[in-house]
Amino acid sequence: MEKEKIAVIGAGNCGFAMAADLTLAGYDVNLFEFPRFKRNIEAISKNGGIELTGVSRTGFAKLAKISTNLKDVVEGTAHIMVSIQALGHEELANMLTPLIRPEQYLFIMPGNAGSFVFAKEFRDKGVKATIAETITFPYGCRKTSEKSVNISRLLAGNMLAALPSKNLENSLKVFRKFYPDVLKLDNVLEAALYNPNIILHPAATILNMARIEYAKGDFGLYQEGFSPSVMKVLDALDREIMQICEKLGMRVLSYKEIMEMRYKKSFDEHFYGVMREKGSKGPFDVQTRYITEDVPTGMVLVSSIGRWLNLPTPTFDAFIQLGGLMNDTDYWGNGLTVDKIGIANMALDELKYFLQEGYSI
Q: Which of 111, 169, 180, 251 sits in a 20 to 30 Å window from 329, CA-based?
């Protein structure tokens, strides 16, 4: 029987892990990297694949294709797995527009509201596609060389939503072939707001930046970065997201409740036990994606939604400002906003209809 063909987009840590893991699971996997990042795939192109170690499947994964040509990678595949930073979603959506087919499923991991970006681009070009996104990557992983990657933990209970939501069951059926324990969400806005990285990563990283820069590589956020005082700040961020969820008529869940649902453990048991023991080292400098990605695509989005709903988000606003100062970057100007995801002019009832039914083409 012919193997099912999968396209993985992005050759970062998770792209490597996903491509290798799904290959060893029995799928034909094509891996794409943007031409400007071709260095990421030079070694594995010569090697023919990726060496996978860790808690999942292990061994050498011989990939079907490794390329900077997107058409070669996605053509003839059943599903497309997007594993790139959210800052690249708009560019990728534009590139995929002439290539994606209605029968292909597009999964964005993590979504960071990427479904809105892809849906808007596809709609503007008259393209139909089935889009879904998760709240996080399926793996805790790090590259161990230019041609190998280690999976230190599997992120259980990932959460998935589809745009439009009426396509959720079909998307779940497909996604569970690869990751069986995924949980379902009501809509992709939930997926964006329930992403734990928005709360956990940027604030703790910024508050620990002096220690990170002093340590010069000898730092682990989960091992030493979450002191009682830092946790108070995270709780304040959490309250601001929950007030937004309430105003939107969504389920109001704290990030601690979400983690307990996903991992079936108490928050303290998982966060201070499993995460402290198995969490990877890092971040190592101010250019970490915990700031450069999570601030503009996560924190700015929360703040923008808050302003749209006339709800204050002072804690989020503070960290957007601090992160921008540290990186000499205007995250307010280049971040993800309600305008950029196409909902700024919607009334709440229009937003709810769009989340359920999607755009009309």
A: 111
